[in-house]
Specification:
This protein has 352 residues and is mainly beta. The protein contains 4 helices and 25 strands.
Length: 352
């Protein structure tokens, strides 16, 4: 889920704060839907009549029957959202992929296998150049592999590996040629080698082939997850912690695996990072300041003071994605915390 103020970042942080929900100029004060001049720039087809929270967030989709709607990822044209729907509650049970049109229509299931889990990553899992979205599933094996699918097409398998690890959380490079993903080892099979809880990051060609290592978790004694490629293609953001520790921080790495940089340093769980469409900022989930439930924050990609975006301490807010036009942030929210099914919401992105 979840920095010291850097002098160069103070002014930018102040601009962001001016546009954040919960501040004096938030969505209820002229920058969001229903606020006069802001409507022209922030139109949202499903806004009228949608359930609304006190912080200005509006409901996008709530699944029925105890299902949990998670991991919103915008289509490149911004007109729909890819999502994962878990059948047994938050991160529980079989999982299907659906596409939710943002004109108010019902979601359409695109990948569903009984007793299997197909899961997408929020952020850059849907790519215009490849005309496809990437996801992970165990549909043909006992462990997760990376797959892709063109809208209206059939799932295509990208990776094939024989060990007991899982390949998950795939994200496209902006040119659509590469997919970055995390490799995870479960405790039962990794106990002897000490690889459990020390996930690594790899990249692979969209067309398959031998994966290329980027960040080696076991070799560095770190756990590395949720990679998302920058819009410029030069860097990848991810969450990292030292093995056995609770705190997560945000890091970036060059697309060739070099140039590791830490973005956040404050104590807490800083997770689920992805990029603004211009690559200047990161949106992520965090319990910064010992919040009872994680909320959505934004921080400059080079580091700085995180700015809070959502403000509902009674709910867990996470897995955020920025809309391609830069106007909105979609996220999952579970009332009372992650023990409860989540729904999808959207909130105006901070100004600045």
């Amino acid at each position: 889920m979840r920095t010291r103020v850097l002098p160069a970042a103070v002014a930018a942080a102040a601009l962001l704060l001016a546009g954040c929900s919960g501040s004096g100029s938030g969505p209820d004060a002229g920058s969001g839907p229903g606020s006069g001049s802001g409507d022209a720039e922030r139109r949202w087809p499903t806004a009228e009549g949608a359930e609304r929270r006190a912080d200005g967030a509006r409901l996008l989709y709530r699944a029925a029957g105890g299902h949990s709607a998670q991991n919103p990822a915008f289509a490149p044209d911004g007109r729909s959202v890819l999502l994962t729907e878990f059948s047994g509650g938050y991160n529980q049970g079989a999982a299907a992929l659906s596409v939710l049109p943002l004109d108010g229509g019902a979601p359409r299931k695109v990948v569903e296998d009984p007793d299997k889990a197909a899961v997408n990553l929020p952020g850059t899992s849907w790519n215009a150049a490849a005309d496809a979205f990437a996801f992970a599933t165990d549909r043909e094996s006992e462990h997760d592999e990376v797959w892709l699918m063109k809208p209206g097409g059939a799932p295509e398998r990208v990776t094939r590996h024989a060990d007991d690890s899982g390949y998950s959380e795939p994200s496209f490079s902006p040119d659509g040629e590469w997919i970055v993903f995390q490799q995870s080892h479960d405790p039962e099979h990794a106990a002897a080698g000490g690889a459990a809880g020390r996930d690594s990051l790899w990249k692979v060609r969209r067309t398959g082939g031998t994966p290329v290592p980027l960040v080696d978790g076991p070799a560095t004694g770190t756990d590395n997850r949720q990679p998302n490629w920058s819009p410029q293609g030069d860097r990848i953001v991810f969450q990292r912690r030292s093995a056995g520790r609770e705190d997560w921080s945000l890091w970036t790495v060059a697309a060739d695996g070099g140039g590791l940089r830490q973005v956040t340093a404050a104590p807490g769980e800083h997770t689920d990072p992805s990029w603004s469409p211009d690559g200047r900022f990161l949106v992520f989930s965090s319990n910064l300041g010992d919040l009872p439930n994680a909320q959505v924050f934004v921080v400059e990609a080079g580091g700085g003071t995180p700015v809070r975006v959502t403000r509902d301490d009674s709910a867990y807010d996470g897995a955020p994605s920025w809309s391609p036009d830069g106007q909105w942030i979609a996220f999952e929210s579970a009332p009372g915390g992650e023990a409860h099914p989540a729904a999808l919401w959207r909130i105006p992105a901070p100004a600045g």
